[in-house]
Specification:
- The chain is mainly α and 129 residues long.
- It has one domain.
- 78% of the residues lie in helices and 0% in strands.
Length: 129
């Protein structure tokens, strides 16, 4: 296992955990009827940057021929790990500036929960599960 593969693996564990924290935090904010702390938005931005870096590292691994050893549909790893989360976050940004302007954390909480499941499944396919 080379350095890129190890970084991709360890960051692959951190991303679903980060999205779970963000989703739970969103639920807590909603239940308590509070305004999100600045750290909430910082975590969201950090997760978006990490997903982007993970995509670049994954693309380097893909182009160098290091693909996951998964028996099933390998494309699921790429779709669950990068494309669906990016699309969800894009739509959460749009909804946060549009219909949910009063409570912009709500679409991000929903997107974070879905991204938690999607990136967790991407991790599972990458590990061959």
């Amino acid at each position: 296992m080379n350095a890129f593969t190890e970084v991709h693996l360890y960051v692959g564990y951190a991303i679903p955990a980060g999205f779970l924290v963000l989703a739970l935090w969103s639920g807590w904010i909603f239940i308590r009827n509070r305004v999100p702390h600045d750290w909430y938005w910082s975590l969201l931005g950090l997760l978006q940057v990490i997903v982007g870096i993970q995509f670049v590292v994954g693309a380097v691994l893909f182009l160098s021929g290091r693909r996951p050893a998964f028996e099933g549909a390998i494309w699921l790893h790429y779709v669950y790990g990068a494309f669906f989360p990016a699309a969800l976050l894009f739509f959460a940004h749009r909804a946060g500036k549009g219909r949910f302007e009063e409570v912009p954390f709500v679409p991000f909480g929903i997107a974070a929960f879905l991204c938690f499941g999607l990136t967790g499944r991407a991790l599972m396919t990458g590990l061959g599960m």
